[in-house]
Design brief:
Elements lengths: L2 H120 L8 E2 L2 E2 L11
Antiparallel strand pairs: 1-2
């Protein structure tokens, strides 16, 4: 065998190894692509119902939010009506009631002064209080008299 034949055999062996290696890589790549296709199909089968459920949930939430919005606007209307009613009642009855209460207080105070004045005239004279600059000292205690 000559050197050219040996070189040709080496190139042929190298070429056979390279083709075998590429064939193995292509087979593995084909298996990976099949597995990926299967996985994508399974995910799609599961994702479509999940997306439908999510869409239904979002629609339901939107309906509930619309209801809450309607309730909130009704509550706001009731609050403004109650505020207007409160203002009306306060302006209608507030002034006269304050005047009646003040009149009643004045009458009670006048009656209590009359009663106090009449009791002071009939009761024994009270002792005077001692005044120290800036302070008033209490009256001395009286002894209770037995009847």
């Amino acid at each position: 065998m000559t050197g050219g034949e040996v070189a040709g055999i080496l190139v042929a062996v190298f070429w056979a190894i390279l083709v075998s290696f590429l064939a193995v890589v292509l087979v593995r790549l084909a298996q990976t692509l099949r597995a990926t296709t299967r996985l994508v199909a399974e995910v799609t089968e599961q994702a479509v119902p999940l997306l439908a459920d999510a869409s239904a949930t979002v629609r339901s939430a939107q309906t509930q939010l619309d209801r809450v919005d309607a309730i909130a606007s009704d509550v706001q209307e009731v609050t403004s009506n109650a505020s207007a009613l409160s203002t009306t009642v306060a302006s209608t009855f507030g002034g006269p009631l304050v005047k009646v209460a003040a009149f009643g207080y004045g009458v009670r105070r006048a009656l209590s002064r009359e009663n106090r004045d009449s009791r002071e005239k009939t009761a024994a004279p009270q002792s005077r209080r001692t005044v120290v600059i800036g302070r008033t000292l209490p009256s001395p205690r009286r002894r209770k008299q037995k009847d």
